[in-house]
Amino acid sequence: MLDRLIKSTIRWMPTGAALACAKHLASRPPRPPISEAEGAAMAKATRLAGLKWNGDAVWSWGTGPTVLLVHGWGGRAAQMAPMALTIAQHGMRAVAFDIAGHGSSPEPLAKWEFFIRDIGVMSHRLGNVHGHVGHSAGGLSMMAARHLYALAPSKFVCICAPSHPHPPVRGLAQRLNPRASVLERYKTFLANQFQSSWSDLEAGAAYRGAGADLLLCYDHKDRFVDHSDGDRIQSFCPGSQLLKTKAHGHTRILAAPDVIQSVTDFLAPSPAKQRMTAVA
Fold it and tell me: pLDDT of 151-193, one tens digit each?
C-alpha cells in the first residue's frame, strides 16, 4: 500500500521529499527465513559471544586459517552456512555474521555503509583473516572495505557482486519511477556511503588492486546482477579469476557444489603455509 501511494505521488513531490521517501523504502530489506539445508549447516556452528557483536549474531565452523563470509542485501549469515561448513571441512575456520539491519541483528535499518563498516570492524576483531567471501552487496562492500578499513592482505571471493552499486538504482527506477533528478541524487547518496563519487565507483574503484587475489563467481541466470559484471570487474583486476555457471541464479549459487568446490580450492592455504600454521 505504501509503495503504491509513493509511486503515485513521487513524480510530483519536491526532489528532497522524493529522495527521502526513496531512501526510507530502500533501508528496509527483507529478512528471509532459514531453509532446511541452511538450518542443518547452522546447527553445526558455534555461536561467538566474545566478539560483542549485535545480538551475538556471529557463527564459526572449524579451525585453521580464518575465512570471513558476508551475505548480501536482504540476506543473512545462514545463507552462507552450507559453504562455510564445506570450507571448515577443508581445514579452515569459517565465520559468518549478520550485517546490521539483517538476519538476527536488532538494528531496524540497513545501509551500504553498514556493510562496509561491519566487514571492516569484524575483520579487525577476528585478526589475520586469510580469506573473505562476499555475496552480492556483501562482495562489493567487502572490496570497498579493503581500502577504507585497511584490511590485511587476503584472498577475496566475490559471488554475484555488482561492479558498482547500480542494482538499487535500477530497483528504485523500476519500483517508483521517480524523476531523473531524484535518481541522480540517490546515486550521490549511495556513493557517499562508499566515501567515493559515482563516476569512480563506475570505474571500478572498489576493486582496484585485487589482481590474482580475487576470484569472481557469476551465473548466466542471475536476474539481479548480470554475469557481465564479472567480465567488467575482471577488466579492472588483471590476473583475477572468473568462474561462470549456467543454472543457479543469484542466491542458489551459494549452495551449488561446483561453486563451493571452486571457492574452497581457491581459499585453501598452500601446504607450506599449513605446515607453518601447524608449527606456530
Answer: 988 899 999 999 999 999 999 998 888 889 999 999 999 999 9
Q: Is residue 174 part of a domain?
A: no
Instruction: Output the pTM of the full model.
Output: 0.92
CATH at 65:
3.40.50.1820
User: Would you say residue 23 lies in a domain?
Assistant: no
Q: Is 25 part of a structural domain of the chain?
A: no
The full 3-state SS of 155-172, as one line of letters, equals EEEEECCCCCCHHHHHHH
The CB density around residue 150, as the number of other CB atoms within 10 Å, is 10
pLDDT in tens, 38-76: 999 999 999 988 777 776 789 999 999 999 999 999 999
Q: Which residues contact 70 (CB under 8 A, 6 or more apart)?
A: 80, 96, 97, 99, 115, 119, 132, 133, 134, 135, 138, 139, 141, 142
Q: Considering its fold, how many domains does the chain have in total?
A: 1
The boundaries of the domain holding residue 84 are 31-163+204-279
